[in-house]
Amino acid sequence: MADITIDLEKCDNCGECSDICPMEVLILKDGKITINEPDECSYCETCVDVCPNECITVE
Questions:
Q1: Who contacts 5 (Cβ-Cβ below 8 Å, separation ≥6)?
Q2: Is 47 left (phi over 0), alpha (psi -120 to 50) or beta?
Q3: In angstroms, rounded to a whole number, what is the distance separating the alpha carbons of residues 32 and 29?
Q4: Is the confidence at residue 1, as pLDDT, over 90?
């Protein structure tokens, strides 16, 4: 299972990561980014690349 961390101090909930996530692991729910079923993560790190605030890590 992927260890996905979002630095909530830096995150402005823009939704870019949820828009690009091919596995729909990151979702925008009630205006906040939420990690949904991290075991589905494919470790592509596209969310890390697209985040304008550099607040996502995937291990």
A1: 56, 57, 58, 59
A2: alpha
A3: 5
A4: no
